[in-house]
């Protein structure tokens, strides 16, 4: 198991893991449940060499744990590739089945297409906003999605509506009834 030394170390470890399953164990040396569970987690780490196990010492990294909303120990998060976080839960020696079930569910070889996601955007922003941590992160600016060429509408050729005079009353009625029936269709088909 690899001990996480800082917020940057956690972020880098997750980003460098690629499609490998990563289990992050948040623990405290003074926590009885953490002490009791530790040998079993070590055993599971040895049985699953293809899984990256990380440990975050709550006592040394309280500020980082608060930013990541970790308030119960022992606490686990599973991450993989472009999916980012797969699951989060707390468990003890008595509920180790929860951990084993999560391992069984997420251990099989899987491929997540795209770049490795790591921590979620809101978690990265929370870490960067925490003055106790030396972690810098600039949120990605939101860019509007490009409109495919086939969906782009060209402006009508010829004179504009104001140049052509008032619309014909029949045209207004037809447009309104078409819009009304479209709205009714949308409302009646929505379940």
UniProtKB/TrEMBL annotation:
Domain of life: Eukaryota
Domain Thioredoxin: 1-108
GO biological processes: cell redox homeostasis
Region (Disordered): 142-191
Matches recorded under InterPro entries: Thioredoxin-like_sf, Thioredoxin_domain
One GO CC annotation: chloroplast
Alphabetical UniProt keywords: Redox-active center
Family membership noted in the UniProt record: Belongs to the thioredoxin family.
Protein name: Thioredoxin domain-containing protein
Organism, scientific name: Salix dunnii
